[in-house]
Amino acid sequence: MIPTPRPPHDNNEEDPTPAVWGFILTLFFFKLIVVGIVFWNMQTFESGVILASTLWYYFPPIVLLVAGPAIFYFRLRKARARRAELQRAEWMLGEQDVTSAAEQRR
């Protein structure tokens, strides 16, 4: 059997990913707003328990969304500190030399 060539891919199609994320974020924020309004109007312990039981599965995605940039930021700070330490060691500079050079640049 001879394989038939595939038709060329139409590159005019838009990527549906932004639309999907927009839809998911709209649902997420709508849920948070509704929960806030319900809790504002019914400020009892029982309503808090019911809202928490219907909202608990939103916390892991929030933690993951916040953890990614936080980890990146702390790793970036660690890498920059290590880079500065290596530069000081390479040029045999002490802490006083580095601070005086930084003050001169200002």
List keywords for this structure.
mainly alpha, 0% strand, 106 residues
Residue windows where pLDDT falls under 50 for at least 5 positions = none
- Report the principal-axis shape: flat
Give the SSE order as H and E letters: HHHH
DSSP E strands, number: 0
Mean pLDDT: 81
Beta-strand residue fraction: under 5%
Structural class estimated from helices and strands? mainly alpha
Query: How many whole angstroms does the radius of gyration measure?
Result: 27 Å
How many strands, what sense, and barrel or not for the largest sheet? Answer: none
What is the rounded distance between the termini? 75 Å
Q: How large is the count of helical segments? A: 4
Instruction: Classify the helix fraction into a percent range.
Output: over 70%
Number of domains: 1
